[in-house]
Design brief:
Elements: H1 7-14, E1 27-33, E2 38-46, E3 53-61, H2 64-77, H3 82-86, H4 90-96, H5 105-125, H6 138-144, E4 149-150, E5 155-156, E6 163-169, E7 172-178, H7 187-200, E8 206-212
């Protein structure tokens, strides 16, 4: 079945803005998963005095939705204070594009996560965040997984109550995901995205993800 895109998505895909790289970028991040084939690399120039994003470019490796959402996200970010970008949600990008097919909602999540990852990169370089020695807890793990979506529905794994069991032991994290009736073709993507989000969480030394088709009792 062909995927139906809004006219806005098609226009953004055909004529994306801010494509490329910045030689003197001071904020860089790559977000995405080889499992689903969608990846974005953002380059930014953030003014150290005003914390305004003066320039932004991106490279997209993926589908039409990946390119369109990255382009729209870059539009939303350019000229804005980093605190404004931290408050952006994937829903904003989706609405600006006049909607996305459910199985492509993860692209808007990817686009926003990429912006925020680039900002974190800049903050780390300027000593504005401390990640060393942070304690990993079941709560911080669950919070990190709020940005992982089921590509079949476009909804967060947490919102769909798919995150059923979390164990944390001295930086080693185990997560059990209930896939239920989710099509098997999406399982690899769910597992890969979950693991990648866990591995980026400060304090995580090792991450294990198990997919379960049967109902399990969660924490």
């Amino acid at each position: 079945m062909a995927i139906k895109y809004s006219q806005k998505v098609i226009e953004e895909f055909k004529r994306p803005e801010n494509v490329g790289e910045i030689a003197n970028a001071n904020a860089v991040a790559t977000e995405g998963s080889p499992a689903c084939g969608d990846m974005i690399t953002y380059n930014m120039v953030i003014d150290p005095e005003t914390k305004i994003i003066r320039d932004i470019r991106f490279r997209s490796y993926g589908c039409a939705s990946n390119i369109a959402t990255a382009s729209m996200a870059s539009r939303l970010a350019k000229g804005k204070h980093i605190d404004e970008i931290k408050k952006l949600s994937p829903k904003t990008v989706t609405e600006e594009l006049e909607g996305l097919p459910a199985i492509k909602i993860h692209c808007s999540v990817l686009a926003i996560n990429g912006l925020k990852a680039a900002i974190r990169d800049w903050e780390r370089k300027h000593g504005l965040v401390e990640e060393e020695g942070q304690e990993v807890t079941p709560q911080s793990v669950k919070q990190a997984l709020r940005d992982v979506v089921n590509p079949e529905t476009g909804l967060s794994l947490v919102k769909m109550n798919m995150v059923r069991h979390i164990e944390v032991d001295h930086g080693r994290v185990f997560v059990e995901i209930f896939v239920g009736e989710t099509e098997e073709m999406f399982w690899e993507n769910i597992e890969e995205e979950t693991r990648e989000h866990l591995e980026r969480l400060p304090g995580v030394l090792d991450a294990t993800v198990k997919l379960n088709e049967k109902q399990v009792v969660g924490d």
